[in-house]
Amino acid sequence: MTYCGVDGDPEKTAVILFTSGTEKDPKAVELSHKNILSNIEGFSQLAKLTEKDIIMSILPYFHVFGITVNLWTPLYHGMTLITYPTPLDYQKICQIIKEEKPTLMAATPSFWWGYL
After folding, report:
1. What residues does the AMP-dependent synthetase/ligase domain cover (predicted)?
2. How far apart, in Å, are the Cα atoms of 8 and each of 57, 78, 94?
3. pLDDT for 30-85, tens place per residue?
């Protein structure tokens, strides 16, 4: 079977991530290739993304939202991806934003508070 230009089973596990463990211990969550592509396409349609977009990637890649929106989505579209190793260095991130002028920066509320 060919899916997204690749031969193989789209239902097979592509990555295993862990929940934050809000109820108790973190749990392993398997995401298939099809899950990932569905998340990428859904977010892309919602945000109306194109290859011309520039994303400022500040979320950790060990969470589903961070890896999907900040890594897989820009790679899928061939977008420009800007990263910085210390996303809590708010002054440096703001300086990078002024210089590079990203069109998208997705984050959680706890990150946004630091930038305000």
Report:
1. 8-112
2. 30, 23, 42
3. 999 999 999 999 999 999 999 999 999 999 888 888 899 999 999 999 999 999 98
User: Could you give phi then psi for residue 63, rounded to 5 degrees?
Assistant: -115, 150
Nearest-angstrom CA–CA distance, 10 and 3: 6
**Which domains occur in the chain, in start order?**
2-115 (3.40.50.980)
- For the chain, give the mean pLDDT: 89
Do 70 and 59 touch, CB atoms closer than 8 A? yes
DSSP 8-state class, residue 108: -
Global pTM reads 0.81
CA distance 99 to 76: 24
